[in-house]
Each structure stands twice: as structure tokens, then as C-alpha cells.
Design goal:
Number of domains: 3
Shape: globular
Strand order of the largest sheet: 3-2-1-4-5-8
Radius of gyration: 23 Å
CATH class of the largest domain: Alpha Beta
Low-confidence stretches: 1-39
Structural class: alpha+beta
Number of strands: 28
CATH superfamily of the largest domain: von Willebrand factor, type A domain
Number of helices: 9
Strand content: 25-35%
């Protein structure tokens, strides 16, 4: 997560001792229902984020609508950012230049950034010199990242094929990237690899764009790599990054929102158009509240903000009432929607990146209430979908958590037949649910081995 991504609330020394004891006990400890009575778990505090976009301005993105959509995707990210977040945009081709850097305090700041995207990002450069962007970021680090109290995050978008302007060599440019990463330690990089051809081509022996973006940049910095075949997937990818950097759990379904008493806001982006494909129009979109009332633009209540766009509409519902909210299309077709809920009770977890073969594989989960600055006592059922990575999507294997005395939930990972888990890559996704209170939380898939 990076040292700036989290500020840990102080806990007793007993937590460290307890976790060490779990590793030592391994499978020879007491049964799972008796082994773990953990002390309060430290909370990860999600702070305002300093986002820096490094944007490949070369001709990697096809002309026409794909380039328009790429700009619209960045604008969507800007719209969904929060007060006191900071957004900086650096475009690069043969050189690097700053398009904008601004702290968001109001809607006018978001509009200013979106205008900079529209005017400054043309995708018409002849070269792809990622190293120039890294050097620019390193030399101006203090101008982009505010330090303590803020989370840094770099979002790099490129096909990854390193092409500096001659006479600069590819090897020289590559070494510059590696050196810059050493000077940018503690900052997670979220890399987005575009395309299906250039990203696989080696520009140095055994070094392709895929290897550079995933293995040399994202993984070592505790970031994340996303490979998308076309710009159609950009908005969804940006949403995933927002979820990671803001610590927001997923919503229930694509169009239904369970609103509990801690929910402060629903933000939903409804896609109306993709390059070469129309999906819906604004008049097709309908909101249904828990009282079965339906709303459509422009006849909406005062607490709903509806921003129309060429490619998407952004719907924001402040202070939604308790119950199930829905957004649908009149024509009955399935809509394409990406949503973020601002809630004051959030699902947190502790899963090790690796477990030893003979180690008792213990997972902790808890609900943190920002209002109490402590663990929530909301009653819920805590379960997790768990299986090997290659069969996780089709799996129906679930494990249950047991609630300890201090509101921390504990589970021991088991295979289908409850025998020893074989070595390999696994995925876990944790869910907390209380239907009576319309309470639902779902983590992103968590990978470990």
C-alpha cells in the first residue's frame, strides 16, 4: 500500500506478539474456534490522495472516438474524486509537460482540470519516452506530493513500449526509469497497459512493455497492473483504482444499492456510449428509491445531482434514505454502470501475501466505524469466497468467519475437503451482510499464495 497510504492507529504491543504466536503455532495450535481471540486491530486511515497521471501522448490510441473516450475517462475520474484530493496531469512523448496540478476544493476546480484534459491531451506525439516522465516526476516530487497526511498515487497509462527520441538509447531510457523508481520509493504506481500488440514486443532482451509496466514498476512499488485491450475498459479501470486508494468496498450488484444508516452518498456513472457503440440515452435512465418512487432527468429531488455527458451521465445522491435504491433503463436492457458509495462503516481485513505450507492460514476481518474511530458492533454475517486462482470465478466454495469477543471476525482457510491446502495461487473475497439493516460490504478479490 506504500508508507504514505496508511496511518496506523496506535495499538497495544500484544497485537504484534499475538500475530507472531499465530505463525509459530501453525497447525499444532488449538482448533480454529478457540485459537484466536485477537486484540483490537489497527485501522488503515484513508487520507486525501495526491493523484499524478502520467499520460502517454503518443499515437498509441487510435484516432477518432477512442481518443475522445480516453479523455472522457479521465474526466470521469476527476468528477469522482473528493474534496482535498489533488490531481496532477503530466503528458509525455519525446518530452514531458505539466498540463495541470490542482487541489480540489469545489466543482470549479474539477471543471478546471477537465478543461486542461480537453485542451492539452492530443495523442499526437511521435515517441514514447516514459523515462522523461519519470525524470520530470522525480525532479518535481515536492510540487506534486504534499507529504504527511496525504496518500500519493501515480497512474501511468501507456502501451509500455519504450521509444525515446534518437540519439538517446533505449537502454539509457530504461536505466533512467529504474533510477527514478529508487528516488520515488514509498509511492505506489498503478500501471495501465494499453493494446494487444506493442505491449508484448521486447524493446530490450526479455523486457517488453508488459514486463516493464507490471514487473518493473507496479509490483515493486506495491501498486497494481491492469492490462486493457482497448480504451473501452478505461473507466472501469479508473474505478478500480479509486476503490483501492479510497478503501471503498464494492456495491451489491451493478444497479442495486443497499443503503444502511452509515451511507452518506451514492455516486453512479452510467455509460451511454462507447467507441462505435451506443448503449442508452439520458431519457432511458430511471432511478427508483426505497419507496418505489421513480425519478428521471430533469424531474429529480434536490438531493440528486445529475450531470449529463456525451459518453456517460454522472448521478450523485446525497443523504439517500435507508433501503434499496436502483438505477435501471426503461427499455429493459442491462445498463453499464460503475458506482462508489461513501459510507462511514467500512470492511477491513488482514490477509498475508504468503502462507507457509504447515502454517495455520488465519484471516482477520473487521468493520471500522469512522464516527467512533473504532470497530463497529453492527451484527452481520461474515463469509468469504475462497478457491484457487484459476477456478475462482466459477467457484462456489465459501468459508465462514467467527466473531471474537472484541468484534473482530476470524476464519481459517480450508480446502473443499478440509484437508491440507495444496501450494499455489489463491483468491479470497470477503463479504459482510445484514439484510434487515440493508448492510452489505464486499472486498475486492484478494490474491495470495
Amino acid at each position: 500500500m506504500g508508507q504514505y497510504r496508511e496511518r496506523i492507529v496506535k495499538t497495544e504491543f500484544s497485537l504484534i506478539f499475538f500475530l507472531l504466536m499465530l505463525s509459530v503455532l501453525g497447525c499444532k495450535g488449538k482448533p480454529p474456534e478457540e485459537v484466536v481471540k485477537p486484540p483490537p486491530v489497527p485501522e488503515i486511515e484513508y487520507l486525501p490522495v495526491d493523484y499524478v497521471f502520467l499520460l502517454d501522448n503518443s499515437g498509441s490510441i487510435p484516432r477518432g472516438e477512442p481518443r475522445v473516450f480516453a479523455r472522457e475517462a479521465i474526466k470521469a475520474f476527476v468528477e469522482l474524486s473528493e474534496i482535498n484530493d489533488k490531481i496532477s496531469l503530466i503528458a509525455f512523448d519525446e518530452d514531458a509537460r505539466l498540463l495541470v496540478s490542482r487541489v480540489i476544493q469545489s466543482q470549479s476546480d474539477k471543471d478546471f482540470i477537465k478543461n486542461a484534459v480537453e485542451e492539452g491531451l492530443r495523442f499526437d506525439g511521435q515517441y514514447t519516452d516514459i523515462s522523461i516522465a519519470f525524470l520530470y516526476l522525480t525532479e518535481n516530487r515536492q510540487n506534486f506530493f504534499r507529504g504527511t497526511g496525504y496518500t500519493p498515487a501515480v497512474i501511468l497509462i501507456s502501451d509500455g513500449k519504450l521509444q525515446p527520441k534518437p540519439p538517446r538509447s533505449v537502454n539509457n531510457a530504461y536505466q533512467q526509469i529504474i533510477n527514478s523508481l529508487n528516488n520515488l520509493s514509498g509511492i505506489p504506481f498503478y500501471t495501465i497497459g494499453l493494446g494487444e500488440t506493442a505491449i508484448y514486443e521486447d524493446f530490450l532482451p526479455n523486457i517488453s512493455g508488459l514486463v516493464l509496466l507490471r514487473d518493473k514498476i507496479a509490483t515493486p512499488t506495491s501498486g497494481h497492473f491492469y492490462h486493457i485491450r482497448s480504451v473501452d475498459a478505461l473507466i472501469e479501470t479508473y474505478f478500480n483504482i479509486l476503490h483501492l486508494t479510497k478503501g471503498i468496498s464494492e456495491v451489491k450488484g451493478k444497479y442495486m444499492f443497499w443503503v444502511d444508516e452509515s451511507t452518506k452518498r451514492i455516486s453512479a456513472l452510467v455509460l451511454k456510449k462507447k467507441p462505435n457503440r451506443d448503449i442508452c440515452t439520458t431519457s432511458d435512465i430511471v432511478i427508483k428509491d426505497p419507496g418505489k418512487r421513480k425519478f428521471a432527468y430533469p424531474n429529480i429531488p434536490a438531493n440528486i445531482r445529475w450531470v449529463q455527458g456525451n459518453y456517460y451521465d454522472l448521478i450523485t445522491i446525497d443523504g439517500p434514505s435507508l433501503g434499496k435504491w436502483q438505477i435501471n433503463l426503461r427499455n429493459g436492457r442491462e445498463l453499464e454502470i460503475f458506482s462508489i458509495l461513501k459510507r462511514l462503516i467500512n470492511l477491513r481485513f488482514k490477509v498475508e501475501k504468503s502462507y507457509w505450507d504447515n502454517e495455520k492460514k488465519i484471516v482477520l476481518a473487521w468493520l471500522y466505524d469512522e464516527r467512533r474511530k473504532g470497530l463497529s458492533d453492527v451484527p452481520c454475517e461474515m463469509t468469504a469466497k475462497f478457491d484457487k486462482k484459476e477456478r475462482f470465478k466459477e467457484s462456489h466454495h465459501y468459508i465462514s468467519f467467527k466473531k471474537a469477543e472484541n468484534d473482530v471476525y476470524v476464519a481459517v482457510l480450508k480446502s473443499h475437503n478440509e484437508l491440507k491446502i495444496s501450494p499455489g495461487d489463491y483468491v479470497l473475497q470477503i463479504m459482510a451482510k445484514n439484510e434487515e439493516k440493508y448492510f452489505y460490504r464486499l472486498t475486492e478479490p484478494i490474491e495470495f499464495n
